[in-house]
Write a structure and sequence with these properties.
Order of helices and strands: EHEHEEHEHHEEEHEHEEHHEHHEHHH
Structural class: alpha/beta
Number of strands: 13
Helix content: 40-55%
Largest sheet: 9 strands, parallel
Oligomer: single chain
């Protein structure tokens, strides 16, 4: 099972000191967090993509390329890549280049984006978010799998005899996740292509998360990719740890209370009771995280949000140290002990996809094994 860190790259005032980091400081901090993740034995670092303040990661592949040069094992991913406002042609180029530079240590998560004003900045309409996600992703699959491409769609100019460059490393496109917290259409899309499905597992109750993942698993099986419990699932989560629960809550409370997303709302205790947020000891984090499989099923990737809400870098690095030393080794062993033999331990990697060979379903534009043409019509021209 893969464990790692994801960041949304917010620039937030530290409520205990009143200091706001500069954009430069925040960008450097994100790279240090990635390096720390590899140092302590984590598997994945994933960056969000935002084009509006107070966030800084507007160019994830630039940052991930820098991290690739400084690391040896870390899988570089996103959380998320905006499939709606980015041109699929540019996504294809950027991530293939990152594939080559990192030796294949790349996958990416597609998302629609939930910030309305961003859409018109890139000439798009948020009311077309779902159709954009469907058409653009199908085009991206073709760009990574077909040369001399002839394509015409609704949302961009046609392509005539187009070949993306560089071509994916080893003729093998990166593995793709689809991230959504509330759109069943995106869970359906992930299932149709046999891709991974990621739920950030932060803001919603377990019943909602279970419903979304359950839909994905059911449709994954119906599309012929394998049994429902073999579907590739990733979860997020947020934790803060200390020697005692009392200390963890005392230190984290001002950050929680002033967080730009969930601050000024429910109390820390109420929010922790109704969502997966865990503030306590490493043992409590282990127990809570193992419980995710009770409603999500056996899954393959667990990412933690550690640097949100203005937490200073030294505190975040200490949290990652605790995570790698005291939490993840126990989670690895226990999740694998519980996992049925037929359920994959890890999501596909570049090496595993290359090993599948030229006849791999991953090399197909549409790998679904049943005739469900209505579900696959959009964006297939």
């Amino acid at each position: 099972m893969q464990f790692g860190i994801f960041t949304i790259g917010d620039v937030t005032r530290d409520p205990t000191t009143g200091r706001v980091p500069t954009e430069h400081e925040r960008i450097v901090a994100m790279t240090e967090i990635a390096l720390k993740a590899e140092e302590v034995g984590l598997d994945v670092f994933a960056s969000g993509e935002h084009h509006n303040p107070p966030f800084v990661p507007s160019s994830p592949t630039t940052m991930l390329g820098w991290i690739a040069a400084k690391t040896e094992k870390l899988v570089l991913s996103t959380a998320t890549t905006l499939i709606t406002t980015n041109d699929p042609v540019k996504i294809a180029e950027d991530f293939a280049m990152l594939q080559h530079l990192s030796g294949g240590r790349v996958d990416l998560m597609m998302g629609r984006g939930n910030t309305g004003p961003v859409y018109p900045w890139f000439g798009k309409d948020i009311r077309q978010g779902i159709p954009l996600a469907i058409e653009n992703y199908h085009l991206l699959r073709r760009l990574w799998r077909e040369k001399d491409l002839e394509w015409e769609g609704t949302f961009r100019t046609p392509l005539r005899g187009y070949t993306s460059t560089p071509w994916p490393l080893d003729d093998t496109p990166p593995f793709v996740w689809h991230g959504s917290i509330r759109s069943p259409e995106i869970a359906e899309q992930a299932a149709f292509y046999g891709d991974g499905f990621f739920h950030n597992n932060i803001f919603w109750n377990r019943e909602h998360i279970q419903q979304m993942i359950g839909l994905y698993r059911t449709r994954f099986e119906q599309y012929g990719h394998g049994a429902a419990d073999q579907a590739i699932v990733g979860l997020g989560g947020q934790v803060f740890m200390a020697e005692t629960e009392e200390k963890a809550k005392r230190v984290f409370r001002p950050y929680f209370d002033n967080a730009p997303v969930y601050g000024h709302g429910p109390s820390l205790e109420d929010f922790s009771a109704t969502t997966p947020l865990t503030v306590g000891t490493p043992e409590q984090v282990i127990e809570r995280t193992l419980g995710f499989a009770d409603y999500a099923g056996d899954y393959q990737r667990q990412l933690f949000l550690m640097d949100h809400a203005g937490l200073p870098l030294d505190v975040v690095l200490e949290q990652i140290e605790i995570l790698g030393r005291d939490v993840v080794p126990v989670l690895r062993a226990e999740f694998e002990r519980r996992r049925p033999a037929h359920v994959p331990s890890d999501p596909p990697t570049h090496a595993s996809l290359v090993a599948e060979g030229a006849d791999s379903p991953h090399r197909l534009v549409i790998p679904a094994k049943v005739d469900l043409s209505a579900a696959g019509e959009a964006g297939t021209r």
